[in-house]
Amino acid sequence: MCQQGCLDATSVEGRDAFEAIFTCIELNGCVDADGTLIQACYEAACAAELEACFGPPLPEPEPPPEPEPAGDLTCAELNTCLGECAPDDALCQEGCLDATSVEGRDAFEAIFTCIELNGCVDADGTLIQACYEAACAAELEACFGPPLPEPEPPPEPEPAGDLTCAELNTCLGECAPDDALCQEGCLDATSVEGRDAFEAIFTCIELNGCVDADGTLIQACYEAACAVELEACFGPPLPEPEPPPEPEPAGDL
Fold it and tell me: What is the DSSP string of 35-81?
């Protein structure tokens, strides 16, 4: 009764347009087994009939713009802030982003865009440091500034003593093999020239392979190959002692 009343109150044009929709739906099979209309089907197949009845479809509403960051943190400060949040603390992370300047957020996002474009993530989602440091150097520098130079190793302290090379050798010989403190004391008590001369001997031994498989020095090898270095440390070798004279016969019996 109600439905008939609606139909009776509708113009011929209105009723024709309404019926055209259902004719289209039927012709295009936009009804499933239990008689329910299939929305995706009739919206695609009967767009003209639907528009003739209801007018053109409303445009999709645009998503609301993301709020601009209101803070003044830099990109590097944003990274520090996020690092202080627990991994699952979305509220903390959102607070860091909200406290960051537009430029800081843009620079931070540029790093991760670069990482994604260059595939610097392994199968379990871990960032590959060597990859992103090589591929995204410009983005990293824009965020964190130029990389710090490698620190130079501290210079070795100059020996403060006056022992000669030969005296250093004697001093080391009096230390137990595993007494590093004693050995260091000998080196500290040696002059620059003494230490240089001592190190020159072992450089020569190494260059000439005068060490056997178990690390023992090969005397014949280093005495031949490193004679100059040995003499600079210990002085010229002592002459071979002359053999004692044969005893004269004592009697004449």
Answer: S-B-HHHHHHHTHHHHHHHH-SPPPPPPPPPPPPP-S-B-HHHHHHH
> What are the Cα distances from residue 145, in Å, to 138, 165, 251?
9, 50, 102
pLDDT (tens digit per residue) in 131-186: 999 999 999 999 999 987 888 888 776 656 899 999 999 999 999 989 999 999 99
List the one residue out of 33, 46, 105, 51 whose CA is nearest residue 75.
105
Span 221-246, mean pLDDT? 85
3-state class of 8 per DSSP? helix
Cα(197)–Cα(164) distance, rounded to whole angstroms? 9
DSSP calls for 162-205? -B-HHHHHHHHHTS-TT-HHHHHHHHHTB-HHHHHHHHHHHHHH
pTM to 2 decimal places: 0.37
